[in-house]
Design goal:
The protein is of the alpha+beta class. It has four helices and four strands, in the order ααββββαα. The protein has a four-stranded antiparallel sheet. The longest helix is centred in the middle third of the chain and has 42 residues. The chain is globular, with a radius of gyration of 34 Å.
Amino acid sequence: MAKKREISLKSYQIHNSNENYQSKKNKVYVSIHESHNKQSTIKEEEQNVIIKQWLTERLKDKLQRANILSLHHHKPIHLFRKSIEESDNAAEEEIIYLTGNHIVHMIYAYGGFIPSTFKTIEVFTLDKFIKWIIQEKNKDLLFQCIEELEQQK
């Protein structure tokens, strides 16, 4: 009782060969070096953020202690002094003082035939100064301020 089939069923034929099947797949190639570089830059950014937070906390603590000393003695505390330009008799300096609850940043020119002038004067609160000094990315300024604050103990 077996029937013979003479015509095969066309609906079950495979129309895609292996080559067509492979070309339709999404191929994603990731270089080991690229993924390593991305991971290392992410790690470096995280480390930079951690270092900035640590520096911010340390600077804030030292400024608060110096603030108490300044209020107690009624004298400003010198944080930073740098000669920008000097000639025979004249000079231009950048100076930062902590006076009470504020920090004063000024650029001062004096001496010789130049009348004494303040080119810029900026007054900061402690928090604004910390943000400014960290964002300024001037390492010399930051480290000299921390060094001066450590000598005040």
